[in-house]
Every structure is written in C-alpha cells, then in structure tokens.
Amino acid sequence: MALFAIGATTVWSAGVAFIRMVAQGGASLADILLLFIYLEIGAMVGIYFKTTQLPVRYLVYVAITALGRVLIEIVGAEHRTGMDILVVTGAILLLSFAVLVLRFGSYKFPSKTPAADGQK
User: Fold this and answer.
1) Tens digits of per-residue pLDDT, 91-119?
2) How large a percentage of the chain has pLDDT more than 90?
3) What is the rounded CA–CA span in Å between residue 39 and residue 46?
4) Which of 12, 5, 3 is nearest to 50 (CA)?
5) pTM of the model
6) Cβ(72)–Cβ(30) under 8 Å?
7) Which of 14, 70, 8, 69 is nearest to 39 (CA)?
8) What contacts 24+ positions apart, CB below 8 Å, involve 101-107?
9) For residues 59 and 119, is the Cβ–Cβ distance under 8 A?
10) What b-and-e string marks burial along 38-58, b requiring 16 or more CB atoms within 10 Å of the CB?
C-alpha cells in the first residue's frame, strides 16, 4: 500500500513540476534532471509491482542524478569552485563505483529471477 502511495505521489509531483515548467515557458537542466529522478522512482516502483523485489541500483541512479542537480546548482548559480565541487564529484564517483560493484555482483551471483535486477 505504501509503495502505491509513493507511486501516486511521484506521478503527482512530476505533473506539478511539468506544469510549473510550462508556466515558466521553459525548463532548465536542473528541471529536466528532476523529471528524470521522478522517472527513475516510477520505474523502481513499477519493477517492484512486477517482480516483488526492489532493485537497489535504481536508488543509486536517483542519488547520482540528485547529486548532478546539486553540482549544476553549485556551478551555475553560485559560481563557486573548490571543495564543494570536489566533494560532490567525489560522491558521484563513489556511487558510480557502487553501481559497478552491484552490476558485477548481479552478473557473478545472479538471483533466482533475472527481472529483479532490472535486466531481461
């Protein structure tokens, strides 16, 4: 029931964000990345309803995309350089490595249902 509520809230939030972009007359890169985050959450919920297993990789993808939005805001709006950028890019690199480890682990030690990993 809670996942259904999360799915409905995701669709609602994505709709509100899209309407806000239309009202502004355009979308920034951060807005597009926000819609991508909503898409990933929706895909994760959909996979759970199909397989009854939650793919962890999708959560890492959402985190990478969210950090990408933070990086764009740091560089674009505030024009800061230095430690902030290094910390965010280091976190993105670490999460990318985690995806690599998860992909290798799912290849080396496959689960009983291949659809649980988001692969066919």
Assistant:
1) 999 999 999 999 998 888 887 765 555 55
2) 22
3) 10
4) 3
5) 0.74
6) yes
7) 14
8) 102/56, 102/57, 102/60, 103/57
9) no
10) bebbbbbbebbeebeeebebb
